[in-house]
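Look at one record.

>
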Amino acid sequence: MAENIFTDENFDKEVLKSDLPVMVDFYADWCGPCRMLAPIVEEIAEEMKGKWKVGKLNVDEATAVAGKYSVQSIPTLMFFKDGKVVDMLLGFRPKDTILEKME
């Protein structure tokens, strides 16, 4: 598994204080579109290694972070740079759409 697992406990350190830009996949185990997106997120994590940090955050477990960023629907992909959200995608998206956001 190439991607990181983000939690309420490690979010500040792993995402907000990261030297690299970070893509966070907000998901839940029971979410069908999230499961469809998972292999794409893993591929992107491999391909962007060293350029981007890529990880997943389970909204059922990390409720504080999900609430802080008002995640209403999943999957939600948020793109962070220097501790700030710079972009986001809602719902299942193809790989090329996600990579465009990361350029």
Summary: Strands lie at 4-6, 22-27, 53-58, 76-81, 84-90.
